[in-house]
Structures are given as C-alpha cells and as structure tokens.
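User: Second chain of the day. Same drill as before.
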Amino acid sequence: MRLTRRAVLRLMAAAAAAAGASRAGAAAPLLQRTIPSSGESIPAVGLGTWRTFDVGTSAAERAPLRAVLERFVALGGRVIDSSPMYGAAESVAGDIAADLALADRLFWATKVWTSGREAGVKQMEESRRRMRVARLDLMQIHNLLDWPTHLRTLREWKQAGRVRYIGVTHYTAGAYDELERVLRAEPLDFVQVNYSLGERDAERRILPLAKDRGVAVLVNRPFAEGGLFQRVRGTALPAWAADIGCTTWAQFFLKWILAHPAVTCAIPATSRVEHLADNMTAGIGPLPDAATRDRMAAVAATFR
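Assistant: Same format as last time:
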C-alpha cells in the first residue's frame, strides 16, 4: 500500500499522541546555528512565506497560517523569511504575529526588490510597516536586483541600527557567477541560495565560499519546489534512515541540507501545521555524517 505524506503524518501524530500520554517531558531542543558575523545563534529550521502566506484578509483564509505560526514558535522556531515579491505575505505574517503577541520572538527577514535608491528605501520602509516591527533583523537584496545601489543604503541602515544584518539572495544556479563575485567583493552577513538534493549546484562554489568568508547561509527551495516529493511518491524510506532520526522524506531531505557545515538555516514554506511540525523535526536529533550524506544523495539519484 502506498501512503501519501498526509497519511504518514497522521500516523506520526497518532503515535506522538500515544507517546505523549506516557511521558511529561518537554520538547527536544531545536538545532541552533551561529551567525558568523555576530556569534548570535538562531534555529536551523525556519519558515518561508512564498505562496503560502499570500492570502486575503478573512479569518478563514488566515486561520491555517495563524496555526502554523503559533506552532512554529512553540516548537522553537524564530526565522521567518519573506519579500515584497510574495504578494501579501509580509502583511499576513506581520498581522498574525502581532495578533498572537509573537513579533518579539521572531527573527524577521525580508528583501528589497526594486531599482533605484529612493524606490528601495520606500519599499524597505513599507516592509517594516507591513511586518509591524520597529527594526528588521535581516534585509536582503532579492535576486541581486540593483545590488550596488541597495548595498550602499543597507550599510547606512545597519550603521544607524535600522537593520541588524544585511545580505543577498538568489534562487537559480544561472546567477551563481554574479553571486560569487558579490560574495568575494563585499562583506555581508547572509547569503540566501537554493540548495537541495534536487539542486546541488550551490555546494560546488557558493557554500564553500560563504563558509570561508564567514557568511551565514539561508537555504531556499529545500524541496526543489516540491519536486523531491514527486520523485519519491509511494516509495518507503530506506530502513537505515531511522539511524539519523528520519521518519519521513521531508526530514530526510532537510537533514541532508542541515548537515552541510556551511548551512545556517533552511526555510521551507508551508501553510499546514502537520507539515510544519514534520519540517521542524528535522532540526532535532542526529544529523548525517559525510558518508551518510553521500548515501542519502545516492538514494535520491535513483529517483531522477
């Protein structure tokens, strides 16, 4: 019998509930990673908002996301990443966090995605208002758009205490030449890049360079836009995945990412609490060593 991810998660929830009845212990601690430029620690699993948080204003539309954000923080999550490119996502995240009194417990990351200094300043101010925070933790230049202009502004803002960290992002290997040039030339706190068992190009140049330069790495597209789940649909995890605490493919995919020494935080997006809990579990317990990561990659390669 083939089980969908939803069916597997329901079984996991039932098992967890049964186990919870026999113990009173607190939740296991979430893996923490250090931001090289400051020494601050953040959880290794965060929350993306692309598509998932782009909803309307009704209570019915926002209820699932309210549950996701509440559970995210309860499980130890902090890093939430958004962008003006993501429709209403910034506002939805900001409104829900304010309503739940969680804003001060989150690490707010967003992006500037426009051309020109004045347009950039206006957009960043609007992002701060939409997220309903006095100061943003991380502002990133989305897809390197007009990055020399915005980087000058971001350095001024960081110096003035208007943002805590600055960085750049991209989501496609076709931009890695330019991304590498920027990382080599400019001191940055963060780089955000796509990386997964389905998109491994970043590990050849970008991840080693980020580690050498002391730049924290946020990982987007950790499931290759869901493509990894399509590849393994109906296929059972290898039995040895239990040795590193994996009970689902999502945990398998995320643990492989988190085991890379350059990775600071992966930011999978979801609008469903059960998927959120599944993703967060990847940041608990053992991570694969280099040999096991190779074994995991070999498994993933068989499903291409």
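Confidence is low (pLDDT under 50) at residues 13-26.

User: Great, on to the next one.
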